[in-house]
Write a structure and sequence with these properties.
mainly alpha; 70% helix; single chain; globular
Amino acid sequence: MTIYLMTIAILLLIAPLLLSFIKALKMWLLYKKPISIFQGYRNFSKLMQKETLVSQEASIITRVAPFLVLSPLLATLLFLPPVTHGAFYVSFVDAFTITGLISLSTFFLMLLGLDSASSFGGMGSSREAFIAALVEPAMVLTIFSVSMMAGDLGVGQAGANLTAHFPKEHTASFLFAGISFFILLVAENGRIPVDNPETHLELTMVHEAMILDISGVYLAIVEAASSVKFIIFSSLFASLFMPFGMQFGFLAALVIFLAKLFLIATAIAVIEVNTAKLRLFKVPNLLGIAIVFAFLSLITFYVLGA
């Protein structure tokens, strides 16, 4: 239990670090002076000290929603696969529960965008609903497919099983699921080519449009939720699709796990530097690919056994 709680605490601590690392790496790749990888912590500290302003049109939802955006994501952290062999983990939580909690967080974020009665907030919430409607079924199918290959519908148990015995006979299904989940990781976290987290242009905003009318502590909480969401998806990808390193001792397993997280962050940064943002109505084509690969993974597993 101590290792379990320690792992969750470490994931919470490095969540802002990963996003700052991505931004710094992108700036370095573009031959710009990179920001500090600790910039995320500085931004959080600065926002916590700023005055919290609320629109006159806003209701009690604006004051409550930031906490409801963060809470389901914190609960999801408790259900992630273990980092090291023998550590405690929750074994009975399946794909529907994980996806449902993440979707609940997205729902309250959309409510937050709508509550200020601004055109930008409504536009961002509408776009977020459009993207989430395509992401969620693909995510359920992908995690379900991997869980079936691992021999257990529980996500935590599936991660442990994959490390103990990788299903080499289902390599094709595994690769299809991995491609699908990586696309979902990019889309659900608002990264290029689906969204640009660094823009404030009204024609391209999705996530930023929903939080334009909040400030101070509320904005700090929502930004913290964004970093926690990224660490959840990265951890799931590292545990389910890069299943190695758990067999070592705690320190070695933790170092390998963190290295996998930074490797994923590096891949995100390289993709963003070399990819342009898609038009909104082109996004379904990308998410359709994720759904197709998720179905292919299931069909290949059940029909061909590959």
